[in-house]
Amino acid sequence: MPDTRLNVIARADDTTFGVLSSRIHEVWSLAQASMHGVGNDPTYNAKSCFETFPFPEGLTPADSAHQRTEAVAGGALIPANISVPNKALAHKGRAQPAIQSIAIREHATRIAIAAKRLNDLRESWLNPPEWTQRLPEVIPLGLDKSPYPDRIVPRPGHEKELAERTLTKLYNQRPAWLDAAHKTLDAAVAAAYGWADDCPDLPDEEILKRLLALNLARAAVQDAIK
Question: What is the pLDDT of residue 122?
Answer without folding.
Answer: 98
